[in-house]
Amino acid sequence: MDRVSIIVSHGSLEGVYPALIMANGARMEGIEASLFFTFFGLEPIIERRMDRLQVATVGNPAMHIPTLIGMLPGFATLATSMMKKEMEKLDIPPVREFLQMIHDTGAEIYACKASVDMFHFKKQDFWSGVDDIISVGEFYEKAGDGQIIFT
Hints:
This protein is of the alpha/beta class. The protein has one domain (about 5-55, about 95-150): Hypothetical Protein Ychn, Chain: A (3-Layer(aba) Sandwich). The chain has helices spanning about 15-30, 65-70, 75-90, 95-105, 115-120, 135-145, and strands at about 5-10, 30-35, 110, 130-135, 145-150. Strands 4-3-2-1-5 form a five-stranded parallel sheet, with helices on both faces. α1 links the parallel β1 (about 5-10) and β2 (about 30-35).
């Protein structure tokens, strides 16, 4: 495999890390990689939001807690703090730093034009490492014959 293109559609902390880990792993193996952020997946690349992502505690069956507990004030903050501490132990960097590391290896980072338009964002709303805002057709063109992964 020469290329992998990863679609990021979740803006929660646990939603973005699988894509970042996979993109980083691809680059470490010498595989070309790109990340395409769409719908709520735009959150990790919006400058004013990317450092405040939280774990989704409501409606997340993998949390193994009743929905009512996940809705308690401060529970998402607690779960996020716990997850960040565990990731720190594994030397997994925060989202901004991880995106920068991945971008520095030559990975391409794109925002979905339809999502950007739908949510009324502008280019200046995004982190400076976003290479471009592209359409789905352009994404497929750039993906070429490589593998596409949806997260």
